Amino acid sequence: CHALTTLMGRGGHVIIRFALGGCTNRPFFRIVAANSRRARDGKYLEQLGCLDPLPNAHGEKVAGLNLERLRYWLGCGAQLSRPAEKLLGLAGFLPLHPMTVTGAERLRRRRQREQQTEAAPADGSAETGTDTGTGTGTGP
Amino acid sequence: MTGLDLHKVFRPEKKGLKPPHYKLMTEAQLEEATRKAIEEAKTKLIMPPVLNEREPIDDVLAEDKILEGTETAKYVFTDLSYSIPHRERFIVVREPNGVLRKATWEERDRMIQIFFPKEGRRVIPPTLFKDEKLGTVFQQDRHEDVLNMCIAQFEPDSPDYIRVHHRTYEDIEKHGKYDLLRSTRHFGGMVWYLLSRKKADGLLIDMINRDLLDDATSLITLYHMLHPECQSAKKAKEQKLQGVDLIKVFVKTESQREGYIQLALQAYEEAMATSSAS
């Protein structure tokens, strides 16, 4: 793991994250192993894949992952950014990220609330937009 | 049986215009050059594989019902490791309902073409290969070009490849245009298709008309190898027939167009008689 030994001075570690590219209103992410102190789109150690966040003509979001090199960098002790972890969880390479699950549950609850408030508008009475969402410990 | 017609195999492809290149050679060098040309032609005439249609992939890796409703589009993940053969690559799809499944063959082919492009292949197959458009191409007698494009575009065991090939062979058989594919690498595939469906009569007539008796005999031997339980095969094995007799036995027992073949054989024999007499 040569890259770890050439860190300048002290601090800075290898991180696997998304680098944004593309044009206005047309994002494109490259999955990249870089030093954590580099700019987001700056010089990286190696490109490990890509992700196109906009669906194509067949309704799919295309993502490529070089799993062989990913395994190498993870073996070297690289860390992952949260979106990278979530993407790998979706891909099945890592277990599903807990925040993905939490996000899904929150979305579902918000949609339910909106449906309820829509269902009772003719009432006129204050939509007790019951925000008693006292988070009852949602999972680990 | 494919026939080695050097003029057709090395017929100039439509590339840029270049003035012809002349070389001065002795007899020995000329023989050497022809020999090399024949070997090259043989490599060009190697038959592409004929496979059965592939089974659709239907494998679910994980089901996460929690994710239902979070995404609007599906994610397709491709493994981009360089040293894996394309057949063993992992291509998985995460559907909006949370199911993680292996990608279908069409999705696989598309993704592999996106990330590892092959020359002559498009990500979305050209409209030429639709059934309606094939008819127009066949009227222009461009069966060979269609088949070359098909080999470049599809995998040998994909249903599209098989469908295009079968339609081409059917069309050739209907109109009797067997000579279009002679001396190309598609001839073997066509013969295999016709023999396995026992429609080889037109081809036989064509061969006899062009005085290709050896090809005709090899055609019938191949037919006997494919269908060893038929009558003519048994008779041929008992009596160990050769040449024209083999054809005659086949004609009597198996063929549908007996009259035509008899006529063609008679014409051939007359021609042989007159040429040997003169």
In short:
Chain B: InterPro entries: Ribosomal_mS22. With 140 residues, chain A is of the alpha+beta class.
Your description of this structure?
The complex is a heterodimer of chains A (140) and B (278). Chain A is of the alpha+beta class and 140 residues long. Chain A contains four helices and five strands. A five-stranded mixed β-sheet of chain A has the order 4-3-2-1-5. Mean pLDDT of chain A is 84; it is low at 131-140. Chain B has 278 residues and is of the alpha+beta class. Chain B has twelve helices and four strands. Chain B has helices at 6-9, 27-44, 105-115, 131-139, 143-153, 159-175, 187-196, 201-209, 213-226, 231-239, 243-253, 258-277, and strands at residues 60-63, 74-79, 91-94, 99-102. In chain B, strands 1-4-3-2 form a four-stranded antiparallel β-sheet, with helices on one face. In chain B, α8 packs parallel to α12 (258-277) and α10 (231-239) runs antiparallel to α11. The chains are: A alpha+beta (140), B alpha+beta (278). The A-B interface holds A 49, 55, 58-69, 90-92, 96, 100-101, 103-105, 107-108, 111 and B 61-62, 64, 66-70, 72-83, 90, 92-94, 100, 107, 110-111, 114-115. Chain A: Residues 104-140 are annotated as: Disordered. Chain A: It comes from Zonotrichia albicollis (White-throated sparrow). Chain A: Its main location: mitochondrion. Chain A: One of its GO terms (biological process) is mitochondrial translation. Chain A: Keywords: Mitochondrion, Ribonucleoprotein, Ribosomal protein. Chain B: One of its GO terms (cellular component) is mitochondrial small ribosomal subunit.
